[in-house]
Amino acid sequence: MGTVRAEGLRDQIYQAYRSRGYRFITVAHPGAIVSGHAVIEEGAQIMAGAVVQSGAVIGENAIVNTRSSVDHHTRIGRSVHIAPGAVVCGNVEIGAAAFIGAGATIVQGICIGQAATVGGGTVVIRNVPDGVTVMGNPAKESTS
């Protein structure tokens, strides 16, 4: 399901097939570093150079893209896409179908809402509500 860019649509397609009894493999590139104490759920994709630390949970159909990192005790929801080079610090929660742009940084303890979008290069220091798009350093809600 990694080829569908719109996370909401990717999630709908995934759920439709799951409801019909289809199963999805979980893929971790051999060049990824995944802790033996992390949980990687069905259909998740961990790309080359990605790092997933101890206690992290990567949800169903989620993508942890090239050279991104997910630190300890972070929960990544279903169908989340973490773009290349993003840094997700410890104890972060990211809701279903959210998108984290390339090179974004989410500091520890932050909650990103469902279907939220974090623009590329953004530094998130405050929680982001469901469905909101943020950009900049520090992150601010986008009005366009």
Describe the structure concisely.
The chain contains 1 helix and 19 strands. It is mainly β and 144 residues long.
Key phrases:
mainly beta; eight-stranded mixed β-sheet; 19 strands; 144 residues
State Rg: 14 Å
* Portion in helices: under 10%
- Uncertain segments are none
Could you tell me the number of beta strands?
19
Major pleated sheet: 8 strands, mixed
Major sheet: arrangement of strands: 1-4-7-10-13-16-18-19
Order of helices and strands: HEEEEEEEEEEEEEEEEEEE
| Count of DSSP H/I helices | 1
Which percent band covers the strand fraction?
Answer: 25-35%
Notes on the structure:
- The mean pLDDT is 94.
- It is built from one helix and 19 strands.
- The longest helix is centred in the N-terminal third of the chain and has 13 residues, at 7-19.
- It is globular.
- With 144 residues, the protein is mainly β.
